[in-house]
Amino acid sequence: MESSAMKHALMEIQRLSDDIEIRKAAIAQEIHMKDQIQRVWEARMEGIEEGRREARQKARQEGIQEFKTEIILNMYHKQYSLEEIADVTNLPVEDVLRLVKSTIKLLEK
């Protein structure tokens, strides 16, 4: 048993779906909404990819720094002078000294 409000709503839905202009507008609105969703999705994917690129670049830089640190410490332990180490690594002597001192402090703890 359907209420009169339900019958009225069903009749209104039928009337609206029969109106070609209303259907065109509804289809246009649906296409517009799907386009917006697609743009948001693409922007999100671009952001994720950019984040991945930045993470890879950061990891690469950290790897290079770790490698340089290892070279510096190996040279220091083989009693190369700070000037020689700086020359080989293309770093200022102050940076080499700072790195050696910070490593020694870490090892003492």
**What value does the Rg take, in angstroms?**
34 Å
Number of domains: 1
Shape: rod-shaped
Task: Give the N-terminus to C-terminus distance in angstroms.
Answer: 83 Å
The main sheet comes to: none
Helix and strand run = HHHH
Average the pLDDT over all residues and give the rounded result.
Answer: 90
Percent strand: under 5%
Main traits of this protein?
mainly alpha, about 110 residues
Structure, described:
- This protein is mainly α.
- It has one domain (4-108).
- It is built from 4 helices and no strands.
- The chain starts with a helix and ends with a helix.
- The relative contact order is 0.05.
Give a summary of the structure in a few sentences:
With 109 residues, the chain is mainly α. The protein has helices at residues 4-18, 20-77, 82-89, 93-108. It contains four helices and no strands.
Write the layout of secondary structure elements.
Layout: H1 4-18, H2 20-77, H3 82-89, H4 93-108
